[in-house]
Amino acid sequence: MTTRKLPIVVIAVLIGFLTAAQVAANAKLSNKAITEDSRAIAVETAELIKNIDKLETEKLSLDNERSKLTSASTESQDALQKEIDRLKIVGGKTEVTGEGVEITFDKPLLISDIIDLLNALRNIGAEGISLNDNRVVPGVGFSLDGLKAQTTVRAIGKQELLEQAITRRGGILEELDQGKVSKKSELTLPAVP
Amino acid sequence: MKPTIVLLIIGLGAGVLFSAQLKTPRQRILNPVEPFSSLTTTRDNLVAKAASLKDEIKKKRDQNSSLQSGLSKNKKNAQILVDELKNLKETVGLTDVQSKGLVVTLADARSGEATIDSIVHAADLRDIINIMWSAGASAISINDERIVAITSIDSIVNTVLVNNTRLTSPFVIKAVGDSKILGEAIDSQDNLSDIHRRKKNFGLIINVERAKEVSIPAFSGSFDIKFAQIKP
Question: Can you give the pTM of this predicted structure?
Answer without folding.
Answer: 0.79
